[in-house]
Amino acid sequence: MLCACLAIFGLLAGCKEDAATPPPLTRVKAVPAELVDFAPAITLTGIIAAQVETELSFRISGKISERLVNVGDPVVRDQVLARLDPVEQEAELESAKAGMQSAEAQLRQTTASFERQKNLLTTGNTTRRDYDQAEAALRSARAQMEQARAQLASAEDQLSYTALRADADGIVTARAAEAGQVVAQAQSVYTVARDGPRDAVFNVHEWALANIVADKGLAISLEHDPAVATTGDVREISPAVNPSTMTITVKVGLRETPPAMALGSVVNGVGPTKQRKVFLLPWGALFEIDGKPAVWVVDPSGSTVSLTPVEIDRYNQGVIAVTGGLASGQIVVTAGVQLLRPGQKVEIVPERKP
Description:
Elements: H1 2-20, E1 26-32, E2 35-38, E3 41-50, E4 53-57, E5 62-67, E6 74-75, E7 80-84, H2 87-123, H3 128-160, E8 163-165, E9 170-175, E10 182-183, E11 188-194, E12 198-204, H4 206-211, E13 218-222, E14 229-237, E15 248-254, E16 266-272, E17 276-282, E18 287-289, E19 292-299, E20 304-309, E21 311-315, E22 319-324, E23 331-335, E24 346-348
Parallel strand pairs: 1-24
Antiparallel strand pairs: 1-23, 2-17, 3-12, 3-16, 4-11, 5-7, 5-10, 6-9, 7-8, 9-11, 12-15, 13-14, 13-16, 14-15, 17-22, 18-19, 19-20, 19-23, 21-22
Helix pairs in contact: 2-3
């Protein structure tokens, strides 16, 4: 009986001892918030394009009889790219040639008649009226001759317009018509990127454009091979925002174009941004409150945590840049945030030193 009482007393003492032991604190990692200078580089993706692109079109309307080049083909100045059916223009040229021959014959006849009247007038064997009529006929024949010559030149030009020629050396980048298609005057048929300087073309958001601090000496490299690199200077900024992408087109003229940077190549452009004061925190510190970013802050007096909304300037690889909601010296939880609740007491685990 005495043994049984002693056993019960021991169990009760053990229970009381367990009830008096406080639960272990949640262990977290934390860092003090410190303002630092922050000027990250912005990397944008664009493509290589020619600084000058020309849309080529026929100067007359007609049916395309043949197409001689394809997209990607190199062309040289005055090379024929396509032809129109020239039947109508050839007929007009033959008519103009016949008109020229008729005008020449008429001029020869009126010239001979005038010379005859001129000689007769000198000897007094004709009248002044006949002489004047011969002179007027000669002038009219000369005018008709000039008109026929102009019509012949116009017909030759019209026939030459049936051939579409390159206006400069370059590469065909687009084709808008096929053989057998009827095209209107000035309707685009080919687009040719001229040889010469190249641009890196980027679509930039307004925020990025407003925060980039340099427009000279920007680093440009191939997206798939960063070792192929060059530098460029901002050459042109579009004055309007593209309504479909809400971006602004920026053209960066390349100082030198490596051979590997062919037209259409995808490139990365890197530019520095304005320096500003921020709190840099690890990604692990980020939480949310009402769908907005927040962090857990430790109260040093009681080691309790509270959730504080913050303003994030930029998400970088591994860190976030916070510009609002924190004060220097505040202790921010960086690991273990998913286990916390407001007012909870925590134990800060010291960082291991290497």
